[in-house]
Amino acid sequence: MVTEITESDLARGRRLTGGAFDRFVLRELRDHLGQSRRVSRSAARSAGSSEVRRIAARVADTRAAQLKALPGR
Fold first, then answer.
1. pLDDT tens digits, residue range 20-68?
2. Cα separation, 71 vs 24, whole angstroms
3. Are the beta carbons of 60 and 44 closer than 8 angstroms?
4. For residue 2, how far is the Cα from the chain centroid?
């Protein structure tokens, strides 16, 4: 699943306040971090360079920890 924040998403976010804004931001962060983790895991398995695989694995691990740290899981 490829996600990106659109202009209409940003406009909606600007209108939100309080808990609704927090939920919006958390959802967008989860989507972004999840996509980054998936891409990084793929690179860690498939990249031709061992250095790129090592860095990608580190990024994937970091994204997993960031996802776990988000509230409301």
1. 999 999 999 999 999 999 999 999 999 999 999 999 999 999 999 999 9
2. 13
3. yes
4. 10
CA distance 65 to 48: 26
Tokens at 12, concatenated: 């909606």
Could you tell me the pTM of the whole model? Answer: 0.81
The whole-angstrom separation of Cα 60 and Cα 39 is 8
Note the residue count of the chain: 73
pLDDT of residue 2: 54
SS (H, E, C) the chain: CCCCCCHHHHHHHHHCCHHHHHHHHHHHHHHHHHHHHHHHHHHHHHCCCHHHHHHHHHHHHHHHHHHHHCCCC
pLDDT of residue 1: 56
